Structure formats: C-alpha cells, structure tokens
Protein 1
Amino acid sequence: VEKTDTLSVVRAYHQGWTGKNFETSEKLLASELRVEVPINEYPDRESFGKALEGFGSMTRGVKLLAEFADGDEAMLLYDMEVEHLGMLRVAEHFTVCEGKITRIRQIHDTAALRSSGFAGSASSES
Amino acid sequence: VEKTDTLSVVRAYHQGWTGKNFETSEKLLASELRVEVPINEYPDRESFGKALEGFGSMTRGVKLLAEFADGDEAMLLYDMEVEHLGMLRVAEHFTVCEGKITRIRQIHDTAALRSSGFAGSASSES
C-alpha cells in the first residue's frame, strides 16, 4: 500500500463530509467498517454514515491542522466549529484497505458534547 | 529536518515519561515549549514538566497504537491505564525543532478526568 494512496482516500473522505458531500464520504467506508469513538456507538457503516450526516450538517467550519500517513494507516488533526457546541478539536486515525476505510478511531473531548445533549442520540446503542 | 530525527525525539520523550524516567523527557522539551491541552493550563516548560511527573507517576501501563512523522511534526496514538481513572485514549501531536519539542498538543476525553477530580490541580492557572 502506498502512503499517497492511503492519504488520498482519507483526504477525499474528510473533504467530502466537511463539504456536506456525505455520499462521497460514505462510498469510501468499507462494508466491514469498525468505529471507535468516545461517545455513542456505531455498530456498522449505516449507523455511522447516518451520524456523519447529522453531525456534519451542524459543522460550520473545519480547519485541518495536520495530516500523516504511513502504509495503510493515516491520521488527521483538525479543529471544527459546531453549531450549538462551539469549537471541537478532533484527532482521527484511519485504516485503509483497497481504497476503502475499514476502521475509524476518533479522539476528542466529550465534556461539552455531554453537557449539550449530544450523548445518547438516535444512533446510540446505549 | 529528517522524518526519522523527529520521530526519534518523540519516541525518546514518550518512552521516557511512560517508563517513569521523567528527566529524560523533560530534557527534550524546548525552553519555549507551548502546550495545548483540553484540561488545565501549562504556561511553560516547568509547569508542564511537573504535571508530566504527577500524571506519569499514576500511569500503570501504556500501549502505543500508532505513530507518524512528517518533517518537523509527529503524532502518537496510545491507550494508557491510569490509577483512579481507568483507560484513557490519547492522541498527541508534536512539533520538533533542533532536537527539542517546541509544541505539544494533546487530544483526549476529559469527562472521566473531570468527574474524578483531575481538573484544577495545583498546576492549573484557572
């Protein structure tokens, strides 16, 4: 796997949903997608895609701070301005296989999200 | 700046404090260190070094999940087991200049930290 291939998939995914082109991003998610996030649970690609549309629609701006790729893994660091929430800094780790994202790990604070009622939405299991 | 140089500095820093060799890590912090963390505030190298010793001493184990470097920047992703807290997933972004770390950005959840009384320690400004 080339580093540039991994990064181009991840960039296309990121540019898709942050530009409200959710279908572009959803097409880059593998059917066996695994999601590791600090709040709520997304057991499959469909539930995560739905959340991406919901949360992405509330995004007022995204500033990419750093991007890295190595083999089939990549990592992004960005600040996003979210409606009803304010600024949220996010680190996102991706694993890519054959042009599709097979695992997404998001790392961010949940304190403001919890106090703003973002926990336990319709997409949550718990 | 070589990618390998940046990563070797960051690895030495990470292995230092996670192995309780705090002096090793503190020596790799530049005097003009800037720190961006989601909880508490560390206006200089000394206050951050003190926090590193305090928090590092409570660390029961660290599992590195991913590492990246590009130019003078690097990023680590790890899970750590912390006394009185449990598991904490951390993404850490570094800028390195002439063998020293000039900026550290930590991204992690603070919900469990806040409820366990980790906010507003002696090292905090606010």
Protein 2
Amino acid sequence: MSDTQDIALGIDFGGTSVKVAAVRGADILGEVERIVTSDCQSADEMVARFGVSIAAWRERFPELKAVGIGVPGAVDVDKGVTYNLTNVPGWRNYPLRERLGALCGLPVMLDNDANCMCFAEFAHGAAKGARNAVAVTLGTGVGGGLVLDGKMYRGSDFAAGEIGQMSVDYDGVEGPYGNTGALERYIGHRQISAIAADLLEAAGRDFTAEDCDPRILAQRATEGDEIAHQVWYRVAGYLGSTLGAVIYLLNPDTIVVGGGVAAAGEVLFDPLKEKLRDVLSAEFFERLRIVHAQLGNDAGIIGSAALAMESLRAGELRA
Amino acid sequence: MSDTQDIALGIDFGGTSVKVAAVRGADILGEVERIVTSDCQSADEMVARFGVSIAAWRERFPELKAVGIGVPGAVDVDKGVTYNLTNVPGWRNYPLRERLGALCGLPVMLDNDANCMCFAEFAHGAAKGARNAVAVTLGTGVGGGLVLDGKMYRGSDFAAGEIGQMSVDYDGVEGPYGNTGALERYIGHRQISAIAADLLEAAGRDFTAEDCDPRILAQRATEGDEIAHQVWYRVAGYLGSTLGAVIYLLNPDTIVVGGGVAAAGEVLFDPLKEKLRDVLSAEFFERLRIVHAQLGNDAGIIGSAALAMESLRAGELRA
C-alpha cells in the first residue's frame, strides 16, 4: 500500500477557471491557485502556464510525486490525450500528458472531471469505505462516475458514467444523440426551471425567472412552499427512476449525489429516498447508502491528485 | 496464466433438470449427464446425488480440478450459500459449497445462472476478446450478466446484472419490486404474446394462442408477415432503449443477446441494431459489437466450469 504522506498536484481544469493545489490525501496544502481559462489563447499557451504553476508548487513542495488533471470533456486516459473539451476551444486530440510531462518532468495523468469528482468522494469523501459507488452530479447537465470493485471504472472508450444520457422514457424527449428520454432533458438546471414555470402558471401564480431558479426553489421548499416541493418531488421521480435502473444493473453499496443542483439538500433527498424505497426491494433499499457529496468545489482538485497517485502506485504512470 | 488443459466439472442447476459435464476450455468432454430436479426431495438429497455424479466423473477424469455450479436464483458467491432458488423449494440459505465440498473433496464454487452464461460467452463464446461485455438473456423473464475490465462483476450483494428490472418508463407498468417500467414486464415471453394478440386483434385477424408464441412469431416474421415484424420491432424498441441506457452507463465493447426468445434471430437483431443506431452517437455505435450468444444450452455448464477454474487460479477457492 501507499505512503499516505505522498503529495500530488491536483489541477481542476474548468470552463471558466483552472484551480491548482498540492494535495496530501484529503488535504489541500496551502491556498488554491486560480488561473482564468480565457487568459490563455491556445492549448500550448495553457500548457506553458501550467508549467510555470507546477514549477512554483514544486518549489514549495519538492516532494511532489505526480500531477493529476481533471478536464471538462472526453479524454483517452491511457494515451493522455484530450478528445475535445466542452466550452474550451482548441483541445481536440491534444496530447496533454506528453506535452506537460516533457515540460515539468513529473508523471502526469488526466481524466474527465466527473471521474475525478467520483474518485475524490470514494477515496476521501462521502463514499469512503465503499466497494461499489455511483456518483451523480446535478448541474447544467447531469453527469456521473463509477468506482467498481474499488477501482475507477471507465469503460472501453473512457466514456462510462453518462447517467444524464440514460433513458427515463423509451418514448420521451430526445437527448443530444437522439437518445429518447435522456435524463438530462428532464432534470438539467434549465428543465427544473421549466417544471417550476409550468406548475406556477397552472396554479395561477405571478412569477419571475428568478422564482424558477433551482437555488430559489430549494429555499422556498425549505420554507414550506407547496409548489416548490412539487418541483423537487418531480425531479426526484425522474432521478430515482434512473438511479433505480443503475442500482438493478450494478448493485452498488453507495450512491453519491453532488453538483450545484444537489445543494437543494433534504427537499431533494427526502423524495429521492422515498422514490428509491418504492422501486427497490426492501432488502436492497436497506443496504444502500444514499449520501450527499462532501467535497464540493474541492472534489476536482482532490480527485485528480488522488487518481494520479493511484495510477502511480499501480505502475501506470511514468514521467 | 493458466493451463488451458485444466478440466473442471460444470453443473447447470435448472428448475426442471440439472446438467453435468466435464469441461476443458470451451469443450464439453463426453456426453452431458442429466438429473431430473424433482427426483430429489430436499437440498441434502440433491447434494448427495451431486456427490455420486461427481465421483463418477472423477473416475473418468481423475485430473478434475474444481466443480462449478450455476443456480437459478440468488447466491452469496463468497460464502458459497444459496439465498433462494426460483421454482426450486428448500434452498433458502443453504451452504451448498461447504456441503458439497466436504462430500467430494474438490474446490466448489457457485454463482447464478445468468453470470455463468455471461462468463461462458466472454471466455469461450460470442464475447471472446471483449474487455467489457454485457450479456442479456431473453426468456420467460429478462436477465443479464456483466464482465467488466475482464472480470465477472457481481456488485455488492452478488445481485448485479438485473437488466430485466431496469425501467424503460418512469411512469410505466410495475415490476415485481414496485419498479415502474421494469423491462421484463414489456418483453418477457408472456408480454411478447400480449403485444402480438393486441396487434392481431387490431388488424381484425383470427388467431390462436399459438400464433402469439414468440417462436411462431419469429418464423412468421422471417416469412414476411407484417404484424409479426411489428411485434419484433416493438420488442426491439423497448430492449434497445434499456440497452442504450446500459451502454451510456458502462461503455461496453460487446453486447451479447441470448436466451430462448433471442432465437428469433435477425427479425429481432435488425430492428435492435436500428434502435441502438438511433439512440447512440455514431462513434459509439460503430465501436460496439452486438452479437448473438453462441453457446446456447451449453453456456451454463461451460460458464460454471470456467468460473470455477478462474476462481481457483485467482486463489479464491479451496477444497
């Protein structure tokens, strides 16, 4: 087993900002560094910027063993290549690991952001101690990650975990790939607002766009607003149906729910648990842990660092 | 790696008959022995009968290394205990591995029949060479098994692979556990007959129960009957919706479709592939192998033997 004192650098590459920090286990060492994504005009420029950043962190932590990067899009984890990144142009088929490795002389690993979040919660967060964990992130879209038999599961083309593309209705609304009933088209941020607008209108209430924002809806539900409760009840119905299917397929012990929309808390979790109790056998439901993600905005940094250390230990990474 | 010349005994424990044979790789050695399940009045009696059978097979093949048993129901693979078997009374919490091991002196492993079928196809059949394979069996009900990253994946309570319980419709027909939209309730043997009856009636045709049998429906569709085609098109629509969800979640390279209903062949596979092309991105669809199970009725024997050898090699089995 590993030395838990090992330190890796975690880079959480987001559409608007990149966050960088040294990580030891679950602990972020020092203050998180932020780089504005749009400050760099090209992938090469961004890599050069990463190189400067890594050099500075190594000066503070000479014992840094590896660099992990979580990116917002599709990657080839084995080759260390980004296929393309959502909302960040110029990264199609970019050999990020090779370029950055050559620059900094450390082993580099990259993975997509949903996997980093999932692994962070498994290794150091809400899913600690799980053997089989499913993480789902609720935000603009719906994403996910899988740890199976204690290891990150990525699928044959590093594309596993697309919970948002799973169908809740064989005859439903089309998703981005023609996939009828794509969960994301039912409980994405925008769709939650649309459910609220429909219900408020049907009730003859005056309302603004703000009244339909998931954050406001969570607050209102907590305060006892009936329509806001109905919105979350519907969201939980769709999400629970898909998670039920995931559970029948994978028989996990832990489900982690995170992302901005999950900040709604109990007003979402209570009806979600109710739905899962309804669609699962009693035995199954009793054995399952359904937990809120713990690491929040730090999950990307902690997870990318943890995956890099894990790969290093498994002998999959070289400088 | 293993000696491919190793021989294990495979036992396919079914609701009506038990089939036993020595297996070397994909080859069944000699003639399959059949035991009528109802000939034994209790689990103990059945185990005694197994003991007699194993002794006889060892006389012919003294090099037998292990015994694998596939059972029709829920098991604890680690403990070697059957929870309960479908259509076979008297097996609740029965320590099958311990009892049989004590009797025959060989390492014994047990698993459920769907996993045995899946592993057989992965190790020696239609999914050979796969890294991530999903097997689905279509019959009275709908079952499944998963090989992930080259290993049998069983989940936290050995209950993974329940494709028939996954939802095709969040608001649909209830399955056995209150699970709305359970696939099995749409494309089980009986449900296929009901679809046929509905369509024949709507068309004003005279028909008998036999006309609604999946075997006859397959034959008629092959002969060009339009209504029979429509039945398979509908079955493929439900199945494809669920398999699409499985593919988004697991990103497998191979899907194996087997079981009695899958004997329909191209009249099912053609619309199934069409549906999957519709719901998957082009890239995803092109990379995927969708294949017919190859080992048919021998899959249970070959798979149970193969899983036993695999466990023995991994050091998980003792006599």
